[in-house]
């Protein structure tokens, strides 16, 4: 079963997705005041991955129909936390268990695939991708279409996973993307929100640190997080 923390995050995401879907359905059913007759809808799938528990859940129309044990990113190579979509599906070689489902992560190439190391399943063992047993990934591949939403969570702090980490130039991840978005909102960052700590972000960080009376350096530490308005809470 999902942990209470992950369940809360997941339910919040589902509520948001439901609201969006209601709006889209309302827009598609009426056109110029006329009600449109549509064909039966195809099943809607969502993949939910809980990194902490090494578990992938497949939901069909909001109901969990499959549950798989997976491997996730090892220390230094975290799996990408956030809301993604499957943008590619390929039948790659045995190194990927013959199946690959690529995600639209901006800071690297991540996906769901099989493995030649089945003993790694259930552990933090990958370079960030989601590994599955080969029989499981083949089954999932045959069910979900392109565009299937993929929600990855790891801990109670959203893009920050289990808490804040010191971030250095070259680091990548959902937390880096959150910083870029916040500094853009505050008027310090004008670059591309990529999830990669590059020179544009470094320049914006230095400007922010100066304006807030913080020591000017390249590390985004807990004091920086708090000054940006990010707080850890449960």
Radius of gyration: 20 Å
Q: Please mark out the parts with pLDDT under 50 across 5 or more consecutive residues, or reply none.
A: 18-38
Proportion in helices: 25-40%
Report the end-to-end length measured between terminal Cα atoms. Answer: 20 Å
Oligomeric state of this protein? single chain
Number of helical segments?
5
Strand residues, percent = 15-25%
Q: Give the neighbour order of strands across the main sheet.
A: 5-4-3-12-7-8-9-11
CATH superfamily of the largest domain: L,D-transpeptidase catalytic domain-like
Class per helix and strand makeup: alpha/beta
Order of helices and strands: HEEEEEEEEEEEHEHHH
Inertia-based shape: elongated
CATH level 1 class label of the largest domain: Mainly Beta
Any idea of the CATH topology of the largest domain? L,D-transpeptidase catalytic domain-like
Number of strands: 12
CATH architecture group name of the largest domain:
Beta Barrel
Largest sheet at a glance? Answer: 8 strands, mixed
Mean pLDDT over the residues = 86
What is the number of independent domains? 2
Question: How would you explain this protein's 3D organization?
Answer:
An 8-stranded mixed β-sheet has the order 5-4-3-12-7-8-9-11. A two-stranded antiparallel sheet has the order 1-2. It has 2 domains: 4-156, Beta Barrel (L,D-transpeptidase catalytic domain-like), CATH 2.40.440; 164-227, Muramoyl-pentapeptide Carboxypeptidase, domain 1, CATH 1.10.101.10. Helices cover 29% and strands 22% of the residues. Residues 18-38 have low confidence and may be disordered. The chain has helices spanning 4-29, 134-143, 174-185, 199-211, 222-227; strands at 30-31, 34-35, 45-50, 55-60, 63-69, 72-73, 82-90, 100-103, 111-113, 124-126, 130-131, 149-153. The longest helix has 26 residues, at 4-29. Strand 8 (100-103) and strand 9 form a beta hairpin. By secondary structure, it is of the alpha/beta class.
